[in-house]
Design a protein that fits this description.
Blueprint (H helix, E strand, L loop, with lengths): L13 H6 L20 H7 L4 H5 L2 H15 L4 E2 L6 H5 L4 E4 L3 E4 L6 H5 L10 H14 L4 E6 L1 H10 L7 H9 L1 H24 L4 E5 L8 H18 L7 E4 L7 H6 L4 E3 L6 H7 L6 E5 L8 H15 L5 E5 L9 H12 L2
Parallel strand pairs: 1-4, 4-5, 5-6, 6-7, 7-8, 8-9
Antiparallel strand pairs: 2-3
Helix pairs in contact: 4-7, 8-9, 8-10, 9-10, 10-11, 14-15
Length: 347
């Protein structure tokens, strides 16, 4: 028995079977940031255009999302998008700067700033629903994964004004102005929930909530300041037939808390072996992961050894979805990714 509410039957795609806690003939495999990044066909297509504009063009989103499915024969597609798309859709001045990431012109740090935020409605992102519908029609039996940023990670970008190593302003705000903090995360939880619902209602077969920067928090801070808002996202999504994956980087000490947010599958970065992670979350929840993306730049014998180890460790969990422990690095050779898929499928 698993904590997942997702039924597991032999007729379902491998990804959904593994997410439902079934031991599949081999692990389904997909890669975070597989859409774009390392693919030459993506670079040709995106040459000269802005990231945010590409994320709002349904035809472009469809083509980019399909590229790694065609090339690598992965077991799932993930929507080509960015976690800041819904924030831009509600009017926040955000730019994605090459080599840096999202940059926020007017950081959110006061109650007045929070009061200016508005909540997302489906009418703000009709293009996202259109892209998902187009993809579902093109993908056939290959499931599409939708995603959103978790409230904490979105808040950290908004408060810091962009990417941060220590998230000092974020932590200072949560402790010094908890009322402002919780008001901000309440709005962001609503935005993430709506963004995921749009994708699910358009046909996404699974969703992933990225809490990329939660690993910088103590368990106590996560429990008090983050967990209730992530729980709300999962609780208000509806659609219990759609698996919910929860992932963060450096979250080895938070895995059970992240599971308790309402995840059907817990994503694990490369720092924690999958068998250890499975035990930490109670032995009843499927796991996803967790090859170190940097190792894809190593010699093939190194990669093969690590892939086989991870597949073996994943068998200790009720279900295992093979992935990286974070996103594909831009310098990754696409042929290596294809070989990894073939190796996992032969395991």
């Amino acid at each position: 028995m698993t904590t997942s509410s997702v039924p597991a039957t032999a007729e379902r795609p491998l990804l959904l079977r593994a997410a439902g806690g079934e031991q599949t003939p081999h692990p389904p495999v997909w890669f975070m940031r597989q859409a774009g990044r390392s693919l030459p066909e993506y670079r040709r297509l995106r040459s000269g255009g802005s990231m945010l504009a590409a994320c709002r063009d349904p035809d472009l989103v469809t083509e980019i999302t399909l590229q790694p499915v065609r090339r690598h024969h992965v077991d799932a597609a993930i929507l080509f998008s960015d976690i800041v798309v819904p924030l831009v859709a509600v009017g926040l001045p955000i730019e994605i700067v090459a080599g840096t990431g999202p940059v926020i012109a007017e950081p959110i740090r006061t109650a007045a700033d929070v009061n200016r935020l508005r909540r997302l409605t489906p009418d703000d992102v009709p293009d996202i629903g259109q892209a998902v519908r187009q993809l579902v029609a093109e993908l056939g039996d290959v499931p599409l994964i939708g995603f959103a940023g978790a409230p904490y990670t979105l808040a950290s970008y908004l408060i810091e004004g962009g990417p941060s190593r220590d998230h000092a302003r974020t932590k200072a705000l949560m402790h010094s102005a908890p009322g402002v903090w919780h008001a901000l995360l309440d709005v962001l939880a609503d935005i993430s929930t709506t963004f995921l619902r749009v994708q699910i209602e358009a046909g996404a077969a699974a969703v992933q909530l990225f809490d990329s920067w939660a690993g910088g928090l103590s368990a106590a801070d996560y429990t008090e300041f983050v967990l209730p808002h992530s729980q709300r996202v999962f609780a208000e999504l509806g659609h219990p037939e759609v698996p919910r994956i929860h992932f963060g980087v450096g979250t080895g000490e938070l895995l059970d808390l992240m599971r308790s947010a309402g995840a059907d599958v817990v994503g694990v970065d490369w720092r924690t072996p999958l068998d250890v992670a499975a035990a930490r979350i109670g032995g009843q929840t499927p796991v996803q992961g967790n090859l170190d993306p940097a190792l894809l730049l190593a010699d093939w014998p190194v990669i093969e050894t690590e892939v086989r180890r991870i597949v073996a460790e994943g068998r200790r969990a009720p279900g295992h979805i093979f992935n990286l422990g974070h996103g594909v690095l831009p310098d990754t050779d696409p042929e290596v990714l294809t070989r990894v898929v073939e190796l996992v499928h032969a395991s």
